[in-house]
Amino acid sequence: MFRGFYTVGSGMIAQQRRTEMLANNMANANTPGYKAEQSTIRAFPEMFMSRLDAARVPTEKGLSFKGLNPVGGLSTGVYMQETLPLFAQGQLRDTELKTDVALIDGPMDVNEETGVAGTVFFTLEGENGDQYYTRNGNFTVNAEGYLTNPSGLYVLDATGNRIELPNDDIRISEEGFIFTGDTQAATLGIAYAAEPDTLSKRDNGLFTTADGQPLPMGGTYSIQQGFIEGSNVDAGRTMTEMLTAYRAFEANQKILQAYDRSMEKAVNEVGRVN
């Protein structure tokens, strides 16, 4: 009986965490460059149950021996194993700002084992010199003349250096070349992740590599100036999944209440002497 409490409880915890993940997706449905998270729910290893019986042998002395009779498998609950970002292309939004740029994915190699395609990112530099990666191309030129993202991180060029510009009156080609007038000032550093599901997700739509090593430059892409890539969250589908997770949580809750009533009856009524 008590095992049932643990099994139902694990199901409620898994659905609660899934609901929190989906709510976070909904909250970021309008965040530029945001990649929706997906969850995987797995079952704990099953227990194989057997019954200990005593079998009698038809002999003069009536010998008996103990044996195990299989009963069957017993589930021990479920858990949310991990969350992984969905790196599908988001819709482009027209901002008409010259410092806004959107990455458009070209044909990418697909990992045969995982079925996940590679993807490309803008390259950023943090305060401590670490590299970050993002799909949010909502850039501005700061007071020092450097191209930065909304968090103040520096946008890097193809050689890993900060991009310094005289002003925000720039032109950016589809290949990522930045021009001030007729002069090429820099080239946007576009990093390629062959296995994007191995990246670590950070706050504000940023990603880092697991080992801290920078990603190589490359990939097939085009750049659209005056646009930003929107979130790839499907609001309708996310709402449906939230309702499904809530119903699953509610079903586990009702089972838990039934277990509680059974235990209350066992404690207060079974074995009572009238």
Automatic annotation (TrEMBL):
SUPFAM superfamilies per UniProt: Flagellar hook protein flgE
Assigned keywords, A-Z: Bacterial flagellum, Cell projection, Cilium, Flagellum
Localization terms from the record: Bacterial flagellum basal body
The keyword Transcription regulation is assigned to this record: no
UniProt record, GO biological process: bacterial-type flagellum-dependent swarming motility
NCBIfam families for this protein: FlgEFG_subfam
Family listed: Belongs to the flagella basal body rod proteins family.
Name of the featured protein: Flagellar basal-body rod protein FlgG
Species this protein is from: Sporosarcina newyorkensis
